[in-house]
Fold this sequence. Notes:
The complex is a heterodimer of chains A (112) and B (112). Chain A is mostly beta strands and 112 residues long. Helices cover 0% and strands 53% of the residues of chain A. Chain A has strands at 3-5, 10-14, 19-21, 24-26, 32-38, 44-50, 56-58, 64-68, 73-78, 87-94, 100-102, 106-111. In chain A, a hairpin with a 5-residue loop joins strand 7 (56-58) and strand 8. Chain B is built from no helices and eleven strands. In chain B, the strands form two sheets. In chain B, strands 2, 4, 5, 6, 9, 10 and 11 form a seven-stranded mixed beta sheet that branches. A four-stranded antiparallel beta sheet of chain B has the order 1-3-8-7, with no helix packed on it. Classes of the chains: A mainly beta (112), B mainly beta (112).
Amino acid sequence: AQSVAQPEDQVNVAEGNPLTVKCTYSVSGNPYLFWYVQYPNRGLQFLLKYITGDNLVKGSYGFEAEFNKSQTSFHLKKPSALVSDSALYFCAVTLYGQNFVFGPGTRLSVLP
Amino acid sequence: EAQVTQNPRYLITVTGKKLTVTCSQNMNHEYMSWYRQDPGLGLRQIYYSMNVEVTDKGDVPEGYKVSRKEKRNFPLILESPSPNQTSLYFCASAWAKANEQFFGPGTRLTVL
């Protein structure tokens, strides 16, 4: 069975500082991994995905994520946080691209 | 404008009264999916469809039905809603499996 953990319910960071939102997964096989962001009262928006290849994936709005197979992690990072990055972030995994499992979400607050 | 639309956006109903939430996409996507979002649980997949007349269960299909008679539409049917189906529902579509999903704006359902 597939599962995704986001160990932090809430992450607070000061504007201009680097941010990390953590994600670990459990799946038997080679996963496809995704990050989505949800702004208040909106649907989810795609940020980036890892399918295969380079372990460092770059996505929208300056975000990137590093796939670490040995640690089964896919942490989301950004070098310099903006107040507008404040939102709910979801990590998702799929094994064959059909059945998706999402993490519980991490609320990011960027403080001015 | 490329989009996924859902109707209604808000619905309050009573236990046992059949309802349908419609989902339509105008991007000619093959893959469509329904999720429910509950606090602390993230998104959980209800059903997905790889193409017309091809549907399959996600992780929480009990109490729900879907159909995919046309490529653009993927309605979610609750034959006999119960209070534990009170949730925020999202429809999503993608070009194909393992591609980024485009999410609709959500439907907030309350079952009394």
